[in-house]
Amino acid sequence: MPEELETALTEWATVASTVGTNGGPAEQSLVRRRGRQLAGRLAEVLGRPVEFTDPVTGRTEQVWGRATGPLPRLAPEPATPWATGLTVSAFFAVLIAIADIMLSRAFADAFGLLWIPANVLVAFGLAPSLWLVRRTPFWRWPAFGAAAGLVVAWVCLLAGLLG
């Protein structure tokens, strides 16, 4: 067996065990496609059919070489709901901006300029959570809105200090 094919099979096995049932549909489909391709190359090298076991479903099939039929196509990515998403983002931006401004002003009335470090703590406390959900299909919109709301609140609060 060629060393390049052996290396590719080893790398694919590592990825397949990682993706397995934990990966998303696109990753699972990609692992299946690559596994069938490598099984076809192996069958050609050996000159006989090989068995390919799908790492996601566990289903076994005979692969006779590269000409085993068309490979399944990847499912298209779902369309991004921009209108709904931006509406949700705008709602959360306004909500977070108003809440942050009101809390900071109340804190400033009680403790003076200590609202600045308190607001920094709020921003840095929210940052990890907002960063983690930025790629989750629905929750990215509230995260983007909350981040924008914090920026708007900071601009308004700092402008209030100047004027």
Automatic annotation (TrEMBL):
> InterPro entries given for it?
DUF2537
Q: Where are the transmembrane segments?
A: 82-103, 110-133, 139-162
Output the Pfam families linked to this UniProt entry.
DUF2537
Entry keywords, A to Z: Membrane, Transmembrane, Transmembrane helix
What name is this protein filed under? DUF2537 domain-containing protein
